[in-house]
Specification:
The structure is a homodimer of 316-residue chains. Chain A is an alpha/beta fold and 316 residues long. Chain A is 38% helix and 20% strand. Chain A is built from nine helices and twelve strands. In chain A, α1 packs across α2 and α7 crosses α8. The radius of gyration of chain A is 20 Å and the shape is globular. Chain A starts with 5 loop residues before the first strand and ends with a helix. In chain A, 53% of the residues are buried. The interface between A and B is large, with 55 and 55 residues.
Chain lengths: 316, 316
């Protein structure tokens, strides 16, 4: 018997999470396992094992499976072009590999698009016609909900908002470009912003942090800011300022006024959000001020599995 | 008798153009008149006079009328929030004023959206699911065709691509922000780029141009570049470089790969397009190189009237 469940798989660089959801989006059962092998074959095997374990546990086959994968994903053709966490992968038809092995219908999308989908259907963006999802972590991912649907564009990977160019001659980026937003408004940005401080201020900050510049993380900057360290508070403001510049560009291009912001860095929400909003408003028409919404995501670790499983419900 | 024609009106700061089109988008008849009075009442009267003249000339009422207006236009409610060419206007319900006077159905949109619509239906973007229209002139306007339709966003005025932030701490802009793309890639940009030249080079350039810095226009820069002036050629490259940065940001955010570029500055197409494309590719994923299309618009002066009239066909 096939129950009206779908399974969402969230493939991270470190962990593979999987969950079965029912028609209301509630998680019925879940699994997680460390990602050991990084080859496509190893990952596909791990996905299959999780799906089988979940189906055994719920005592039923599921209707379909949704995969959320980090990186450049061609959702239409089910191909991962490239993924930061799986450097060997190049144009790998992961969707077909999984579908063939489990004999179930499978859809696949970028992980940030899965987050966007979850927030749009059941989270902070519920009921909105348009929203932009931003995930602040090691990188800055994004997903566009336009006219109620995920928008993928011609390339299949719209929403690469971490690569909005905020400094045309700026820091080199992994995308082969430079000056991309995620250099200034994701985890690594704290090192960059600290490196731009006056030397004396920076040295004092690092002394209080007890780490070298290279080891400065958002967590450390948050701890110092909580202790009232003015330089650390300034780093968070700088982070927010750039985030706001990127948001302003999206407001101007897309005319979308609600941004749902998730990812690990949102633990420090209060440290950057005022600065982000002020900077976004500085760079957009004044009339937007009353309408611009920067909302904290509802889902954290479950966003990926829920979004992937909800996509499977919709698309399969 | 009502013929199956619609009228498009393109309201510029200097001229008001109007044309009747048939079902194939062919212009049946046209009118143009200088814009004398700038008040809403004067402009509405001028629109009405043109519509009446056209209807008299074609010997029939038309099905509907489309208005293209520069500035911040709320197409849904038919209100012009603000227009650079009509500084007195603030939240003026132009659509209703015209509709009441002519007793015909009227739609209204931003002029760049009308351009986008014309190119999408009958021009350089015909048959494309997604495209971005850029109009390079005094400002840098834009319009988004997403999934085959004009996308307006929540604000009603998506496509304000001239306000992509390319220099967060850059030049002040009329939108109240700073560092907006249109400061670097529209008419006024030539003065800015020239001001950044080495003083000796700049003085020589202006001497050859025979104008002061404030009077440096794209036309003058084009003439000098055609005469082989290296500094002028460099100004066009700089213009293209910034345009490419803006295009890269749109590619990354929207995943759209075709840009249709119109407006007066495209007369100098060959002077900036290579630089724009190189810069766009520098700031996007390498895999886009084979797919990125920067196309020259098909329509020039008629884009506005045709797009407005085509919108009237579609929407009314």
């Amino acid at each position: 018997m096939v129950k009206d469940y779908t399974i969402g798989v969230d493939l991270g660089g470190t962990n593979l999470r999987a969950a079965a959801i029912d028609g209301s989006g509630t998680i019925i059962d879940r699994r997680a396992t460390p990602v050991v092998g990084k080859s496509a074959a190893a990952v596909v095997d791990a996905v299959i094992a999780q799906v089988s374990a979940l189906e055994n546990s719920i005592g039923s086959k599921v209707r379909g499976i949704g995969l959320g994968v980090p990186g450049i994903v061609d959702w239409e053709n089910g191909v991962v072009h490239a993924s930061p966490h799986f450097p060997e992968w190049s144009d790998v038809p992961i969707r077909e590999f999984v579908a063939r092995a489990v004999d179930r219908k499978v859809c696949m999308d970028n992980d940030a698009n899965c987050h966007a989908f979850a927030e749009s259907r059941l989270g902070a963006g519920k009921g909105l016609r348009n929203m932009v999802m931003l995930t602040l972590g090691t990188g800055l991912g994004g997903g566009l909900i336009l006219d109620g649907k995920l928008f993928h564009g011609d390339s299949g990977f719209a929403g690469e908002v971490g690569h909005i160019v905020v400094e045309p001659e700026g820091e080199a980026c992994g995308c082969s470009g430079r000056g991309c937003l995620e250099r200034y408004a994701a985890s690594h940005a704290f090192r960059l912003h600290a490196s731009r401080l006056d030397a004396r201020v920076r040295d004092e900050l690092l002394r209080e942090a007890g780490v070298s510049l290279d080891a400065l993380t958002p967590e450390i900057a948050a701890r110092l800011a909580e202790n009232g360290n003015a330089a650390a508070i300034g780093l968070w403001r700088e982070f927010g300022r750039y985030l706001g510049v990127g948001i302003a560009t999206m407001v101007n291009v897309l005319g979308v006024l609600t941004f749902v912001i998730g990812g690990g860095i949102t633990k420090s929400w209060d440290k950057f959000i005022d600065s982000a909003k002020a900077s976004a408003l500085e760079h957009t028409y004044e009339r937007h001020a009353a309408f611009l919404g920067l909302r904290r995501a509802k889902f954290s670790n479950d966003a990926g599995v829920i979004g992937a499983a909800l996509q499977a419900r919709d698309l399969i």
